[in-house]
Amino acid sequence: MEVTFEHDGLSFGGRLSDLSAGGFYVDTVNPLSEGAKITFRFTLPGQSQEGAVVGEGIVAWQKPFLGMGVRFTWLSDEDKDKLIRYIQGGR
Would you say the pTM of this structure is higher than 0.90? Predict the structure, then answer.
């Protein structure tokens, strides 16, 4: 899955993996610093762009030139439900 995220008015992109109810990992050669606050957007498989998951997170850890782990700090109730259904296999 592709994810776009913003930090300090700049937009970035990467490949999302290791998605869980608490956050996700982003493969990116330019990870942000630990503690950086981001807004993000990604579309779950089988969903339309209009149904994208949008939220806020914080960089929990990073590996230079490889990627970063993001912990959710805010998701709407609707997006939380979509995410849980996806993780549990209900897609």
Answer: yes
